[in-house]
Every structure is written in C-alpha cells, then in structure tokens.
Amino acid sequence: MVEMTFLDLPSEIQQLIVSCVAKNSFQALSTCKSMRALADTPDVYSSFDLYKYPWWTGLRDTLLRRCYDVGNPSTLYIKGVEYFYSLQHHEEGLALMKRAADAGYERALYTYAMTRKLYWDDEEYFASFTREAVGTIGWLVRMDDAPWVPVVNEGFLAKKFMFMSTDRPLFYNCPYLVCIITPMLYDF
User: Fold this and answer.
1) What is the structure's pLDDT at 170?
2) How many whole angstroms separate alpha carbon 174 and alpha carbon 188?
3) Whole-model pTM?
4) φ, ψ dihedrals at 159, nearest 5°
5) Are 80 and 68 in contact (CB under 8 A)?
6) Cα separation of 27 and 174, whole Å?
C-alpha cells in the first residue's frame, strides 16, 4: 500500500478536512505553518463556532473581522447581541441575530425569538426549536453566572424571568408534548 501524506491530497479535499477540523478545534489547525495556511480561507472562517475557540485572546480583532466578513453565524450572533443589548442599536442588532438564526445557529435562534417575543410580541420563530435545544437553552438561562449574559444590561436582567418560563410550551406544535414538558417548567 502506497503511503500518502495530507499535502498529497487534492486541494479541495484538504480544504474540506480543514473545515471539518475547524468546526471542532481551531487550535488543532495552528500546529504547523502548512495547516495554518490551509486554514486561512473563507470556508474555514465561516464554519467554526467561536464559542469553542478562545477568540478573546491573541489576534481577537483579526479573527472576529475575518469571521464577520464571511458571515460566520456565531460572529453575527455575538455582534447582534452586543448591538441590541449593550449599544442599544436595536435595528442593526436584530438584523444580525436574524441572519445568524436563519443560518441555523441555535443560540441566535433562541435569542432572536425571545427578543421578538419580549419587544414586539411576535412568536414566529418558536416553531423552529428542537426539544434538545430547549433543554440546553433553559439550562443556560437558569445559570446565575451565565457566560453569555451581559451583566451590565439591566434591561435583560429585568426580563430574565420571561426568558426562563413564559413561552416554553409554545416551542412545540404537538399538544401531547405540553403535558410531558410542563413538569420541567417548574423544576428550577
């Protein structure tokens, strides 16, 4: 059997492998110069989740700018939440959260749906949630030291109880699921 190195593979396959690795561990891509060169492409920047990578260290501005330029959903979500809740730029922030939610990013989907519900009483995006996503998001919201909650935002903290419990039964269209989920609603 002939041995083949990674660099002997066609460049399209190399890019596909690097994109898959970037989704799980961007740090693994910075182990050598050739991997770093392969990772410096728009496909890679658009594919990984910034919450799995310590983006707040090192080349933070460069990384965030490149991710934002290619439309990375986690970057759009971070900027959208920052614009909406911290900077009070509601229109721009909501548009960025919607782009991330439409790309399938669960955190953005939940935040966008709850923001629309709280500020405009709109429930359009609730049907998009999966049961697992609701459980995970509920756990995150109930955390006292949630890493994604801007502590200085009194507006969010005042309405935090609404994010926790009011609309969970609306996540499901099947009437039989409500009786299964209802006991979990009061389990905090």
Assistant:
1) 38
2) 24
3) 0.59
4) -105, 10
5) no
6) 42
Measure CA 174 to chain center.
26
Based on the number of CB atoms within 10 Å of its own CB, is 159 exposed (0-12), middle (13-18) or buried (19 or more)? middle
Q: What is the largest CA-CA distance in the chain?
A: 65
Q: How confident is the model at residue 95 (pLDDT cuts 50, 70, 90)?
A: very high
Q: How many CB atoms sit inside 10 A of residue 125's CB?
A: 19
pLDDT for residue 93 is more than 90: yes
Q: Helices 73-81 & 106-120, crossing angle to 10 degrees? A: 30
Supply the DSSP string of the chain, one letter for each residue: -----GGGS-HHHHHHHHHHHHHH-GGGGGGSHHHHHHH-SHHHHHHS-GGGTTTTSSSHHHHHHHHHHTT-HHHHHHHHHIIIIIS--HHHHHHHHHHHHHTT-HHHHHHHHHHHHHHH---GGGGG--HHHHHHHHHHHH-TT-TTS-TT-HHHHHTHHHHHHTTGGGG---HHHHHHHHHHHT--
Residue 91's pLDDT is what? Answer: 93
The C-alpha atoms of residue 60 and residue 144 are separated, in whole angstroms, by: 27
Token pair belonging to 178: 């409500």
Mean of the pLDDT values across residues 77-106?
90
